[in-house]
Specification:
Length: 334
Amino acid sequence: MKDFHQSPNFREGKFVNLIPTDMNTGFKDTVSMLKDFLKPHPNRKPTTPIAVESVGLAPNRDLKQTKVTWLGHSALLLEVDGKTLLLDPMLGATPSPVPPFGGKRYSKEAPLKIEDLPPIDAVLLSHDHYDHLDTPSIKKLKDKVRKFFVPLGVGSHLVRWGVDPAKIKEHDWWDETEFAGLKLVCTPARHFSGRSLTDRNTTLWASWVILGEQSKIYFSGDSGYGPHFQEIGEKLGPFDLTFMECGQYDERWSTIHMMPEQTVQAHLDVKGNLLIPIHWAAFTLAFHSWTDPIERVTQAAREHGVSISTPRIGETVHLGAAEYPTSTWWKEQS
């Protein structure tokens, strides 16, 4: 594992954001959130389970083709230059260490079973929150994966769950690594970390850049809006495809989760071409309507002339296709 105590992003025993990021809500905000929690809101989740597409797992024979399958929330199955990658593969039933209190996945199950996956070249993790780093998923995946690429400190979780330390590579922001013909760059995000009340910000959070021969891809992880997007775009853009967080937001914690309009601006900042919004349609982790993220982000994309794809969960997007999935499938969901 990499020694992170020398990282410029680690100060006084904690990792820090590039710009001040206040995550402590005052008394007024706490009271208002309690009221929102107790207030009935019939559209915070679908009234019936979301239908998902069955994922086809045939190997990608065309090495020039990049394709991605959204698995719900921020989990993605990415095939690029003949390599198979999983991004934040949270495929469990609930994003909580205490399942009865964490809320259930909107669909009855994830669109694929880990047992059915082919060998995975690499898993990229953005941070250690439960809705991105799921213990049962990692335990089932660990013997299928060649390498895990994670932000500083996150490897300790994987080792505890039985992942061979030799399979894990930890990275600080702006670290670059070559893997199987791909260049992977660990890039900044504006967020926080922690899996309990006592370990906040003891591991790093990140976004990721995947540079292949055929395509350049950006994965935001979780992030509030900030100047890091423009810096990433200037240093590493433009990108053929971006996966941008869009969901679980609130004005009271907008420093750590973007509002949907900021999602589109962040895509423009990194110089993205096709935008796929993620971090929605799987769990209720905020007070907004479950369809609010996609309605607002598609409206903002139209206003800014941004190309956006809205696949169903389990639907595959082929980069460079004549058309991309753009149905308003959520409107069919009761």
